[in-house]
């Protein structure tokens, strides 16, 4: 028998080209939004776009289902050109329930696209989200393009022949949503199909269910007449190479493993769990086959002390924490300053003094890192600028620490730590070398006899015959390292410790100016604000503004050429996620007027905020 | 400028040459008050080390802050005078880095039980193979005479002119509570006994905790004299010996017997003989007896000295190394290139 299929006549949807799109997936923490976002990101990377992502999860471990604090979201920005931030404002919001809509709607661009799972909008959920009336019906969404889709029931319908419990079938709804988004943004679904196969390798019915849901979502986009347009974002011109996505915390961990490999000594990482730094501990704990020793200490003080002990004994001593933990470590950092041992201290900064807002970002530990210890206490301070940069700066931290026998503080933050971007994986010969010099010759050995050029004292580890010596926190006599209360000696040693750190400036790259080397306004940033600042400056320069920027990854010492650069601009603007800390230091160090542009809201800068501020300053 | 001392004494590698106590004395002038009990502990440590068969460069003395913590400066070994209370943590890092070293922690009652109490507990619990010697003078010496966590209730000091209202800690029961695998006590001037306890501590694999009752003749003179003084100690100290009944007294005519759940002092004679006494068992799995002994105090009881507990357990650094070796066996030696390329990757042409 012959059958004919009747294909409904419908106009082919239009394909519209877009340059940059920012999508935010949001739902309850049980809705699998992080996974959905990650899958979308991977597929987008394969499609050749430049991209950046930012997850945002609830502070509570198990916030009540459907509640406002329980909302979990994942933002991904992708583009056909170079981008540096996960996007100021989402263009598209996927909201799986009322709470997700309520929390995220204020961020959406005017006229943005909203995809709603109407099945999530029942009485109970509306109440939990504290909606008095249904926003789908009361005009709340009038200013947006809204697509109301019963995602849960469509998923269940698609899965009616798959033999899994109702609850599990319901859980596949995020794949339906993902499939729909793939259709809408013209991405292939194969990579995710394959991923599902691997992920559920021993549960064939889940493979079938999730793949079916994904295909159903895609087919839904294709088949319904709801969408008249779908979108295409062309490949970006990206440096060739092998890429992977990394979060800052992952890149930090990888960077330290690499540092240890480059140095040929084991990494010893001691830490006490704290948000948002714990992921570094989790990552490093997996790298045991690299000889990485991880030590979950009883507190942050023990962690740094153990790292100092490891450094004394010849390992790469590393400790990691967030702001409150850095405060606890300060006395021990000074021990490393006095004992002149190469320990690296990671601070993944978070918002607020005391406990503050642990899951929110800020870069307000700069002054703590530079000055937050008793007496004159020079340490080197570095700060990665992007998630991928965390890798290189981790290596750099140990290169400096071991070459100069000095503690180094590495300032990351929550935004860098959790945010991700594609990273071109470097080949090993692109990486810097770390040459360790362990003293073995007893002839002429003195614990504080310094290298003439670097002023580093010798690294003489226990177990080396003939080099038995004592170090500690008491002031040391120049050269012999014996305890000394001599007034002139203390002055000399204070100078030497400061001079040693100052000389690192000879050994770090000059800072590059983005834009013209002189002009009306220089924007100076450091750390995670790189993307927003550079994008803002680029945007305004394209429109003829006389603005340039520099981004500092070395905060102590500063790059040698910074002073000269500052002097070539009429005004200096310093946007920071704190109340004006770098602005203060630049003013003190270079006697320049700095215009501070602080933001302390637990959130990163938007490009637009910096654009507006620059315009305002230029108009003054 | 005088360029001597630190790291420049002795003739380097000793090879098979037998070391003597002099080899362990640094050229730094010892700066404790004349008559301080610390001298005697220093002398015994220097006496014991040469017998351990460990080359000098493998010793590391780590201390916190206090009079007692000055100790490493006087030892011609590697030494690290760290910060107040944190020596056990620094020592953990050293030992984890190089398990081949003989690592000693020198601490005081304030250093180890007040500011550093947490690190002491956790180092013992992990059974890091370090020797912790706590100089207990029941006072803060270096800061000139405030009461400490081991000072008796009611003690009058500079900071407690009306008597202390804190109940003291018992260092041994703290160590036992933390699961320490070696717990012992000795007295600064009981030199032979001290040397033997130190040697056993050194030979024990795992954390060793030794409380040394130490006289501070400036701020707390004679604190232990009533029971540890030369003329009375035979009657008032109980020398513990593994496998032996708990007998004490100059005439060896008194003993400790278990009565219900309590220990009691008994007079040996016709009615009660040694066979009625508790037999000391430092190797018991359960620390119960050790715990009871730790709480015997003068004047109701004699004060026990010697080894309370000595049991075997894998050490922290052994387990750490084992995990690393297992990971290497399972996954192969780490390959950086592979690691960087792990997870989801894609190629841009
Ligand atoms: C962070 C810090 N707090 C306080 C001190 C001051 N301090 C030095 S030693 C000490 C007490 C030492 O007592 P103990 O450990 O019993 O040693 P002792 O001097 O009796 O041998 C104190 C409070 C310090 N050095 N560091
Ligand atoms: S103050 Fe006491 S403990 Fe300190 S050195 Fe003097 S006698 Fe010894
Ligand atoms: Mg004391």
Describe how the helices and strands are arranged.
The complex is a heterodimer of chains A (620) and B (349).
Chain A lengths: L13 E5 L1 E9 L4 H14 L3 E7 L14 E9 L12 E4 L2 H7 L8 E5 L5 H6 L16 E5 L1 H8 L7 H6 L1 H12 L5 H10 L4 H20 L5 E5 L7 E7 H16 L3 E5 L6 H8 L7 E4 L3 H14 L2 E6 L1 H17 L3 E7 L16 H6 L8 E3 L6 H16 L3 E6 H5 L1 E5 L45 E3 L14 H17 L9 E2 L4 E8 L3 H12 L5 E6 L1 E3 L5 H6 L1 E8 L4 H10 L4 E4 L8 H13 L1
Parallel strand pairs in A: 1-8, 2-5, 5-6, 6-7, 10-11, 10-12, 12-13, 13-15, 14-15, 19-20, 19-22, 22-23
Antiparallel strand pairs in A: 2-4, 3-4, 9-16, 14-21, 18-20
Helix pairs in contact in A: 1-6, 4-8, 6-8, 7-8, 9-10, 9-14, 11-12, 17-20
Chain B lengths: L37 H11 L10 E5 L14 E4 L5 H11 L4 E7 H7 L1 H10 L3 E7 L34 H7 L4 E6 L3 H13 L4 E6 L11 H4 L4 H4 E3 L7 E2 L5 E6 L2 E6 L20 H7 L8 E8 L5 H16 L4 H5 L4 E4 L1
Parallel strand pairs in B: 1-2, 1-3, 3-4, 4-6, 5-6, 7-11
Antiparallel strand pairs in B: 5-11, 8-9, 9-10
What can you tell me about this protein's structure?
The complex is a heterodimer of chains A (about 625) and B (about 350). By secondary structure, chain A is of the alpha/beta class. Chain A folds into 3 domains: about 15-235, 3-Layer(aba) Sandwich (Pyruvate-ferredoxin Oxidoreductase, domain 3), CATH 3.40.920; about 245-430, Thiamin diphosphate (ThDP)-binding fold, Pyr/PP domains (Rossmann fold), CATH 3.40.50; about 515-620, Rossmann fold. Helix content of chain A is about 35%, strand content about 20%. Chain A has a 7-stranded mixed sheet, sandwiched between helices. Chain A has a 6-stranded mixed sheet with strand order 3-4-2-5-6-7, with helices on both faces. A 5-stranded mixed sheet of chain A has the order 18-20-19-22-23, sandwiched between helices. In chain A, helix 14 (about 390-405) links the parallel strand 14 and strand 15 (about 410-415). Chain A starts with 13 loop residues before the first strand and ends with a helix. Mean pLDDT of chain A is about 95; it is low at about 1-10. By secondary structure, chain B is α/β, with parallel strands linked by helices. Chain B folds into 2 domains: about 20-245 and about 280-330, 3-Layer(aba) Sandwich (Rossmann fold); about 245-280, no CATH class. Helix content of chain B is about 25%, strand content about 20%. Chain B has 11 helices and 12 strands. In chain B, helix 1 packs across helix 6 (about 190-205) and helix 3 (about 110-115) packs across helix 4 (about 115-125). The longest helix of chain B has 16 residues, at about 315-330. Chain B is globular, with a radius of gyration of 23 Å. Mean pLDDT of chain B is about 95; it is low at about 10-15. At the A-B interface, helix 1, strand 9, helix 9, helix 11 and helix 12 of A face strand 1, strand 2, helix 2, helix 4 and helix 10 of B. Strand 17 (about 470) of chain A pairs parallel with strand 2 of chain B, so a sheet runs across the interface. Magnesium ion binds near residues 110 and 148 of chain B.
């Amino acid at each position: 028998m012959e059958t004919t299929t009747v294909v409904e006549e419908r106009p082919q949807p239009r394909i519209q080209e877009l340059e940059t799109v920012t999508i935010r997936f949001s739902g309850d923490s049980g809705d699998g939004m992080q996974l959905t976002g990650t899958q979308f990101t991977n597929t987008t990377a394969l499609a050749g776009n430049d991209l950046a992502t930012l997850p945002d999860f609830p502070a509570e471990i198990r916030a009540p289902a459907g509640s406002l604090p329980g909302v979990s979201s994942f933002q991904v920005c992708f583009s056909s050109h170079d981008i540096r931030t996960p996007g100021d404002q989402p263009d598209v919001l996927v909201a799986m329930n009322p709470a997700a809509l309520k929390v995220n709607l204020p961020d959406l661009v005017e006229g943005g696209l909203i995809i709603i799972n109407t099945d999530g909008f029942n009485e109970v959920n509306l109440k939990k989200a504290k909606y008095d009336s249904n926003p789908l019906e009361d005009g709340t969404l009038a200013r947006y393009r809204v697509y109301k889709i019963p995602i849960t029931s469509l998923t269940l319908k698609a899965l009616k022949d798959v033999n899994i419990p109702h609850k599990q079938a319901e859980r596949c709804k995020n794949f339906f949503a993902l499939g729909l988004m793939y259709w809408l943004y013209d991405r292939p679904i194969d990579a995710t199909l394959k991923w599902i196969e691997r992920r559920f390798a021993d549960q064939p019915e889940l493979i079938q269910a999730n793949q079916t849901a994904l295909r159903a979502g895609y087919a839904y986009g294709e088949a319904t007449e709801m969408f008249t347009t779908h979108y295409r974002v062309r490949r970006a011109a990206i440096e060739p190479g092998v890429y992977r996505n990394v979060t800052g915390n992952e890149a930090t961990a990888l960077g330290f493993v690499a540092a240890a490999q480059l140095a040929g000594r084991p990494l010893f990482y001691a830490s006490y769990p704290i948000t948002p730094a714990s992921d570094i501990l989790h990552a490093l704990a997996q790298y045991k086959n690299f000889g990485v020793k991880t030590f979950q200490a009883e507190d942050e003080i023990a962690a740094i002390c153990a790292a100092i002990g490891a450094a004394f004994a010849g390992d790469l001593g590393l400790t990691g924490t967030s702001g409150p933990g850095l405060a606890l470590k300060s006395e021990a950092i000074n021990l490393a300053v006095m004992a002149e041992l190469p320990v690296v201290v990671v601070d993944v900064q978070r918002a607020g003094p005391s406990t503050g807002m642990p899951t929110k970002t800020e870069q307000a530990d700069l002054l703590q890192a530079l000055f937050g210890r008793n007496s004159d206490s020079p340490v080197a301070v570095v700060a990665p600028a992007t998630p991928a940069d965390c890798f290189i700066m981790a290596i750099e931290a140990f290169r400096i620490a071991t070459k100069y026998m000095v503690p180094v503080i590495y300032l990351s933050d929550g935004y860098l730590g959790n945010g991700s971007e594609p990273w071109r994986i470097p080949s090993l010969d692109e990486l810097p070398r770390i040459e360790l010099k362990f003293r073995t010759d007893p002839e002429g050995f003195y614990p504080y006899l310094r290298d003439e050029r670097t002023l580093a004292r010798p690294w003489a580890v226990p177990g080396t015959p003939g080099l038995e010596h004592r170090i500690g926190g008491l002031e040391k006599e120049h050269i012999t390292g014996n305890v000394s209360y001599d007034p002139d000696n203390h002055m000399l040693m204070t100078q030497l410790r400061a001079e040693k750190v100052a000389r690192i400036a000879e050994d770090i790259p000059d800072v590059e100016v983005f834009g013209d080397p002189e002009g009306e306004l220089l924007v100076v940033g450091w750390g995670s604000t790189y993307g927003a600042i550079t994008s803002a400056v680029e945007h305004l320069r394209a429109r003829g503004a006389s603005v340039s920027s520099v981004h500092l990854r070395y905060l102590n010492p500063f790059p040698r050429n910074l002073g000269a650069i500052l002097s070539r601009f009429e005004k200096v603007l310093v946007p920071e996620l704190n109340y004006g800390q770098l602005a203060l230091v630049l003013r003190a160090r270079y006697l320049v007027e700095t215009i501070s542009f602080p933001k302390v809201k637990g959130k990163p800068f938007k490009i637009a905020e910096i654009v507006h501020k620059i315009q305002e300053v230029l108009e003054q | 400028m005088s360029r001597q001392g630190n790291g420049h004494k002795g003739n380097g590698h000793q090879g098979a040459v037998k070391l003597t106590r002099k080899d362990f004395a640094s050229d730094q002038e010892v700066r404790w008050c004349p008559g301080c009990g610390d001298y005697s502990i220093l002398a015994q440590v220097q006496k014991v080390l040469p017998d351990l068969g460990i080359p000098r460069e493998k010793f590391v003395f780590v201390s916190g802050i206090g009079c007692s913590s000055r100790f490493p400066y006087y030892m011609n070994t590697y030494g690290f005078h760290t910060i107040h209370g944190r020596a056990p943590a620094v020592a953990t890092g050293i030992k984890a880095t190089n398990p081949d070293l003989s690592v000693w922690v020198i601490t005081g009652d304030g250093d180890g039980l007040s500011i550093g109490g947490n690190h002491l507990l956790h180092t013992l619990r992990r059974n890091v193979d370090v020797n912790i010697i706590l100089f207990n003078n029941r006072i803060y010496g270096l800061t000139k005479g405030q009461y400490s966590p081991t000072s008796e209730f009611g003690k009058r000091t500079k900071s407690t002119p009306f008597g202390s209202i804190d109940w003291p800690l018992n260092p041994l029961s703290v160590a036992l509570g933390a699961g320490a695998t070696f717990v012992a006590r000795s007295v600064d001037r009981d030199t032979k006994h001290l040397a033997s306890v130190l040697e056993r501590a050194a030979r024990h694999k795992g954390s060793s905790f030794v409380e040394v009752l130490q006289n501070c003749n400036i701020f707390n003179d004679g604190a232990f004299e009533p029971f540890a003084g030369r003329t009375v100690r035979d009657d008032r100290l109980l020398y513990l010996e593994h496998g032996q009944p708990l007998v004490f007294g100059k005439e060896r005519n008194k003993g400790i017997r278990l009565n219900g759940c309590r220990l009691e002092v008994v007079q040996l004679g016709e009615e009660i003989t040694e066979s009625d006494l508790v037999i000391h068992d430092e190797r018991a799995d359960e620390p119960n007896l050790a715990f009871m002994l730790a709480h015997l105090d003068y004047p109701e009881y004699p004060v026990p000295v010697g080894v309370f507990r000595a049991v075997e357990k894998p050490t922290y650094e052994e387990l750490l190394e084992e995990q690393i070796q297992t990971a290497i066996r399972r996954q192969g030696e780490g390959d950086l290139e592979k690691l960087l390329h792990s997870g989801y990757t894609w190629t841009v042409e």
